[in-house]
Specification:
It contains 2 helices and no strands. The protein is mainly alpha-helical and 52 residues long.
Length: 52
């Protein structure tokens, strides 16, 4: 059971080292990136599927 506690401690340490404003900006940037990449990803997935 030490692994989840270690992960939680690491997450708390990282959170404590950054400000809420910085974390929100990081989330915004990630979602902007994801939204920009998703159409291409879905297209590539559709192209890679073999007909069944």
């Amino acid at each position: 059971m030490s692994a989840p506690n270690t992960s939680r401690a690491a997450g708390l340490k990282i959170s404590a080292m950054s400000s809420p404003k910085r974390r929100l900006a990081e989330m915004r940037d990630f979602y902007q990136f994801l939204l920009a990449e998703l159409p291409g990803l879905l297209h590539r997935r559709e192209q890679s599927r073999t007909p069944r």
